[in-house]
Write a structure and sequence with these properties.
The complex is a heterodimer of chains A (330) and B (340). Chain A is of the alpha/beta class and 330 residues long. Chain A folds into three domains: 114 residues, Nucleotidyltransferase, domain 5 (2-Layer Sandwich); 146 residues, Nucleotidyltransferase, domain 5 (2-Layer Sandwich), CATH 3.30.420.40; 46 residues, no CATH class. Chain A has ten helices and 13 strands. In chain A, β12 and β13 form a beta hairpin. The radius of gyration of chain A is 21 Å and the shape is globular. The two termini of chain A are 26 Å apart. Chain B is of the alpha/beta class and 340 residues long. Chain B starts with a strand and ends in a 5-residue tail after the last helix. Chain B folds into two domains: 159 residues, Rossmann fold; 164 residues, Rossmann fold, CATH 3.40.50.2300. In chain B, α1 runs antiparallel to α6 and α11 packs parallel to α12. The chains are: A alpha/beta (330), B alpha/beta (340). Chains A and B meet through α3, β8 and α9 of A and α2, α13 and α14 of B.
């Protein structure tokens, strides 16, 4: 079904922990969004996400353009037939700017990655990502919640109940955990430990990812961890500014990807390569092997859609990349 | 024919022409180790001291790749080839460290040359090279000819790599291309970037994760710090209120400072090696200068054996996007949402 004069764009953001989808219209209003867990199987989760999205929309809305982002953006791009594949920094910045053109700082904390984006006059001027350490990201909070047997959804609110945060070393998650156990064995109540943890993680973020960055308001905080009220409060404590959390904080990456898709179709008009709503019925198989052509021993990945080869990557020399003929065949 | 092994790492990327020509002219076979591979990296990390910088570690892997194929290894104890400024002290100790770490190495040819500290001039250089030559031939004419040809080859190498000021300005005005021609991306502005780092990082696709190719594919035209005219580097270095005496670091910081001042590039990418002392100084200086004058964006990437390729790619892509969008008028249309 195609509504007259209206175009719809799909954005898919597949990260380490969650898979998010968003559909926007021509005026960049969010029509519908989906947030599910990736559970280590990005192909399955994209298919599941598309199915849920289709059920939510209730009709076979025609998609004019599709974009993918997140750490699995390349794979996702192949599975949905994305028109544009972009990094998550650009996607998050665009989604935040769309919501509030005045925004000057975007903090994003997801499952494994945390980033900071500095914006001036609607233009990204600087950014940073966490390097090798995933301290203070969603997966660590998840792990601690399950260790303390507290549902992750209640984690933040519990922190708010405490007015006496214990001090926890936030430099490294391994040390943070032993510190937490130590405090718990001394008899500190769980809420104080959780609040202490939130503060440690906020400090860690500001000292590592945010190091040397000029953090100015308005500040937007998004990504899965933004659901944690304790984290928000800790950030407000250290930054001494009010922190805005967008209504759709958990699907901002997907909204950004959808905006990028819209932009791409305006810039280079063409028919979308989106495979359509029957993606969940398609059969995707990925196989991997090691190339023994040289001592680099590259790990090659092949993706097949309904038995047909659609993508192959991973080689340094490029010898396994699809040839023009193979690509044209698709 | 005797075989002399030359590891393809560190100073090889500066003096390859001189060294290979010299040994060939002496009637030996100069065997250069293969390009860095996963296997070489693996052997490097396993055998090199923990505290060494990533590039020095890689040297170990290249030595291991050569050791069973050659009669000699050529690992000069190189101090400097400038009358005041010095190279890295690790270059001087390298041969001895390798000999103590890996016991069954072939004989190492390790002439010591240091213009800045030991005052070695032309005659000392000649004497040292002559002594190396005597290992392979008793014929003085052959040795002298080898030295002359080697020096000439090195001069030619500098001529091809270094550009003059005029060429630089031409590049700055987008009238010429100095490196791999950028891929054409439909409807996107071609970007110009200064790619800054040590020769052994810029030219080793393995350690810098193929950054040259990825910039080319993103439609980015670039200049490298090793191409920069020396007089402009020195001019920038004079502005510091201290003397930066690391010869190769001057090249790096000088290039960054030149482009921050001239504002003739869209951005600067600074490739740094983890635990390199001079790099950490220049990195901090560059970051502070960039904060004071943030017009030309600076992206600093630190490489080591643990660097995750995915994260680097995301940073480079995001940086390029940032540069493209900042000029793109279309972004203005997109950021102001129209309500109907």
């Amino acid at each position: 079904m195609k509504e007259k004069g209206n175009n719809y764009f799909l954005g898919v953001d597949v990260g380490s922990i969650s898979t998010n989808l968003a559909v926007i219209n021509q005026t960049q209003d969010l029509i519908e969004s989906v947030y599910i867990r990736t559970e280590g199987k990005p192909v399955d989760s994209v298919q599941r996400g598309i199915k849920i999205m289709q059920e939510k929309l209730g009709n076979n809305l025609e998609i004019t353009g599709a974009g993918s982002t997140g750490s699995a953006r390349q794979l996702t791009g192949v599975i949905v037939g994305a028109d544009i594949v972009k990094n998550e920094i650009t996607a998050h910045a665009l989604a935040s700017l769309d919501l509030n053109p005045e925004v000057q700082t975007v903090m994003e904390i997801g499952g494994q990655d945390s980033k900071i984006i500095i914006i001036r006059n609607g233009i990204v001027v600087d950014f940073a990502m966490n390097t090798v350490c995933a301290a203070g990201t969603g997966s660590f909070l998840d792990m601690q919640a399950s260790r303390l047997d507290i549902p992750i959804e209640d984690f933040g609110d519990l922190a708010l109940q405490s007015d006496n945060a214990v001090s926890i070393a936030g430099r490294c998650t391994v040390f943070a955990e032993s510190d937490m156990i130590h405090k718990q064995q001394l008899g500190h109540p769980a809420k104080d430990i959780i609040k202490g943890l939130c503060e440690a993680l906020a400090r860690n973020y500001l000292n590592n990812v945010g190091k040397g960055k000029d953090i100015k308001p308005p500040i937007m905080f998004q990504g899965g961890v933004a659901a944690n009220a304790g984290m928000r409060e800790s950030f407000e404590k250290y930054l001494e500014y009010e922190i805005m959390i967008p209504e759709n904080y958990d699907v901002m990456g997907a909204i950004g990807a959808a905006i990028l898709a819209k932009e791409e179709m305006n810039k280079r008009p063409r028919n979308t390569s989106f495979y359509g709503w029957d993606i969940p019925e398609m059969d995707f198989k990925t196989t991997g092997f090691e190339c023994d052509g040289c001592p680099n021993i590259c790990e090659i990945v092949e993706i097949r859609k309904n038995e047909q080869l659609v993508a192959r990557w991973g080689s340094r020399c490029g010898k396994w990349d699809l040839t023009d003929e193979e690509a044209a065949f698709i | 024919m005797k075989k002399v092994g030359i590891p393809r790492a560190l100073l090889y990327y500066k003096f390859s022409e001189m060294w290979t020509t010299f040994f060939k002219e002496l009637g030996t076979e100069a065997v250069v180790s293969p390009k860095t591979t996963k296997q070489i990296k693996f052997d490097s990390v396993k055998n090199a001291p923990d505290e060494d910088c990533y590039s020095t570690k890689l040297y170990f892997g290249h030595v291991l790749a050569l050791k069973d194929q050659v009669d000699y290894l050529f690992i000069p104890r190189f101090g400097s080839d400038h009358h005041t400024y010095v190279g890295c002290p690790k270059f001087i100790g390298l041969a001895e460290v390798l000999r103590s770490q890996i016991p069954d190495l072939p004989e190492i040819i390790m002439p010591h040359y240091n213009k800045a500290k030991s005052g070695h001039r032309k005659i000392a250089f000649f004497r040292k090279a002559y002594k190396v030559g005597l290992k392979f031939t008793k014929n003085p004419i052959k040795i002298i000819r080898a030295i002359i040809k080697a020096v000439k080859a090195q001069k030619n190498h500098y001529k091809t790599i270094l550009i003059d000021e005029e060429t630089l300005h031409k590049w700055e005005r987008s009238e010429t291309i100095l490196n791999e021609p950028p891929r054409y991306v439909e409807n996107e502005r071609q970007l110009k970037i200064a790619l800054v780092g040590h020769s052994y990082v810029l030219n080793d696709p393995y350690s810098a994760l193929g950054i040259r190719t990825s910039l080319q594919e993103h439609g980015v035209d670039f200049i490298t710090s090793e191409q920069m005219p020396r007089n402009l580097i020195d001019k920038q270095m004079d502005k510091l209120d201290y003397d930066l005496y690391f010869l190769y670091e001057r090249e790096i910081l000088g290039a960054i400072m030149h482009f921050m001042e001239s504002k003739t590039v869209d951005g600067i990418i600074h490739l740094m090696i983890f635990s390199c002392g001079p790099d950490s100084i220049a990195g901090e200086v560059a970051a502070r200068l960039s904060k004071r004058d943030p017009i030309v964006p600076l992206l600093q990437l630190v490489f080591d054996e643990l660097t995750a390729e995915a994260g680097m790619k995301t940073r480079i892509e995001a940086f390029i996007d940032m540069l493209r969008r900042s000029e793109d008028e279309q972004t203005l249309l997109l950021t102001t949402k129209v309500h109907i």
